[in-house]
Amino acid sequence: MATAAYLMKHAGATALMVLDAWTDLPVGIITETDIAHAVAGGKDANSTRIYELMTTRPSVIKTTTSVCDTAEVMTIGHFRHLPVVGDAGLVGIVDIADVCRALLEPAFPGCPPAWPSRSSTRGTLTGPFAASDALGGREGRG
Fold first, then answer.
1. CA atoms within a 13 Å half-sphere pointing along the CA-CB vector of 74
2. What contacts 24+ positions apart, CB below 8 Å, involve 47-52?
3. For position 113, what pLDDT does the model report?
4. From 17, 62, 108, 140, which residue has the greatest number of CB atoms within 10 Å?
5. Span 22-43, mean pLDDT?
């Protein structure tokens, strides 16, 4: 677990993928939240192994998945990170910040033209994304 935390810190990442050595397909994902929960639960960072904390068989999206469909998968599954796979295996990870940035672009092609509007209270959303836990939860569970 200490190695995963070190890699995340130095890569500026919030999640790491565990890949199958033969196929390069994701077999697990570990996030900074997984590490924080383990440490808060009293696990030893130097002796706890990644496989003990990672989410196995994470949900994935393809390189051809639209941003809107990605947002839907993330919202329904309560994911903050999704592995992206192509013909040759893992090609990247998309996180909730990537999706939000893309959806906030003016006139993003293929998305509904009217996203939930802000209420008079700054930062409060109305509509389908109003639930406070809409984006929380364990990563890649599917």
1. 23
2. 48/1, 49/1, 50/1, 50/3, 50/4, 50/16, 50/18, 51/18, 52/1
3. 55
4. 140
5. 92
